[in-house]
Amino acid sequence: MLTIKKKIWILLAAVLLLGVLYGTGAFHFRHCVRRAANAVAVTALRIEYRLAGKDEPLFVPVLMYHSVNETPLGEPVLSVRPREFAAQMQAIADGGFTPITFDELADAENFKKPVLITFDDGYRDNFTEAYPILKKHGFRATVFMISGDIGAPNFLDGDDILAMGDLISFQSHTVRHCRLTGLSRDDAALEMRQSKETIEALTGKPVIALSYPEGRFNSAVLRLAPKYYDYAVTTKCGYWHSGKDRYSISRLAVGRGMKLERFKKILDQT
Ligand SMILES: [Zn+2]
Question: How many whole angstroms separate alpha carbon 266 and alpha carbon 40?
Answer without folding.
Answer: 13
